[in-house]
Amino acid sequence: MLFPLELPFPKTRPPRLRMQVWDRDLFSANDAICEANISLLGLMKQAFKKKKPVTVRGLDDDGKPSSDFWIEDMPNPQGEITTARIKVSVEILPQATAQQMPAGLGRSDPNMNPTLPEPEGRLHFTGPLQFLKDIMGDELYGKWCGKIGMCMGLVFCIILANLFVGLASVF
After folding, report:
1. Which of 44, 60, 80, 145 is most buried, with most CB under 10 Å away?
2. In the prediction, which pLDDT does 7 show?
3. Distance CA 14, CA 169 (A)
4. How many CB atoms are closer than 10 A to CB 9?
5. Cα separation of 29 and 23, whole Å?
6. What mean pLDDT is predicted for residues 119-134?
7. What's the maximum distance between 2 C-alpha atoms anywhere in the chain?
8. Residue 86 Rama label (left phi>0; alpha psi -120 to 50; beta)
């Protein structure tokens, strides 16, 4: 049980789920990218009446019913334009059911109900070149490698030309 709630809830503060997406900066403060609020009022009423698990239903990318759904066009809290989206699943469980189905916070133990995989697209600190490739992306990294290779080739040609000019003056 991650977030225990008392039902019935006060009518002055209907339950809502607030989600925020933040970037992770290495050398400066992290910034909020976007946020969204989902009203849980209808879901809570259903859970209170049924006394059984209740799940928010959405549509997957193929238009089929799914237990997870996308929140599209999440606004930036600083007012900047953001076109972020996040895939979520929300389930309200009675306390007895929640105690039988342990779940950790995020990917912490126990990582089940649901199991959350490791994120993709993170930086790899395996070496300086791989780190640069992760930061710059494949296309930009390839362009810079080409430019650096051309500069090194030009320097090599200049050194070789000076060597030949020096040898020619000796003979």
Report:
1. 44
2. 67
3. 90
4. 15
5. 9
6. 79
7. 102
8. beta
